[in-house]
Amino acid sequence: MSTDDPAVHAGEPSGEGVGEADGVDRLWTPHRMAYIKGENKPSGSGPTDGCPFCRVPGLADEDGLVVARGKAAFVVLNRYPYNSGHLLVCPYRHVADYTELDEAEVAEVASLTQDAITALRTASGAQGFNVGMNLGSVAGAGIAAHLHQHVVPRWGGDTNFMPVVGRTKVLPELLRQTRAALAGNWPAR
């Protein structure tokens, strides 16, 4: 099949409006525009101000991308991941600061973080992890009003020119596929 065959390019943007041909391939990531424009961002700091971490537990796991649920906290895929399999461990209670968690919440966030690491190693062969919290918007928290811990899987060579120069992250599968793989490999307790 020739690369000029329209069937080869089915579902790809037409290329119209991209300017003069310059020999540069373009990777279209239209899903990122939702994040850039602030989609799903709360309108305020309260739990009823559109907080996605308060809304997600009320959805079916597949619809909310919930991977695991505990009594005090849950694990959800990041809709705008740094890497494929990027998880967020969130308390159900709407609190902004780590010091506001009670003992049961602290223990379950820690336990679910351990389970997340185990599931990511099993499901995707992750070789390392970035684990942490951004407390407050000045510290980089995109949703500062509801505490969440990031668990980002890493592999040797996963950082390349795309995120550094192109400010684009290439993800190898759809979020629902990643959620299913991780939920299927979640450790039993």
Describe this protein's structure:
The protein has 189 residues and is α+β, with helices and mostly antiparallel strands. The protein has six helices and five strands; from the N terminus they run αααβββαββαα. It has helices at residues 31-36, 52-55, 61-64, 103-124, 161-164, 175-184; strands at residues 66-69, 73-77, 87-91, 128-132, 149-154. The longest helix has 22 residues, at 103-124. The model is unreliable at 1-14 (pLDDT under 50). This is HIT family protein. Pfam families: HIT. Residues 52-161 form the HIT domain.
In short:
By secondary structure, the protein is of the alpha+beta class.
Keywords:
five-stranded antiparallel sheet; HIT-like_sf; single chain; 26% helix; alpha+beta; 189 residues
Unreliable residue runs = 1-14
Number of strands: 5
Biggest sheet details = 5 strands, antiparallel
Which outline best applies? Answer: globular
What sequence of helices (H) and strands (E) makes up the elements? HHHEEEHEEHH
The share of residues in helices is 25-40%
Main structural class: alpha+beta
Which strand order does the major sheet show? 1-2-3-5-4
Number of helices: 6
For the termini, the CA-CA separation is 52 Å
Mean pLDDT over all positions: 81
**Radius of gyration of CA atoms, rounded to a whole number:** 19 Å
Query: What is the percentage of strand-forming residues?
Result: 5-15%
Keywords: Nucleotide-binding
Protein name: HIT family protein
Pfam family, one: HIT
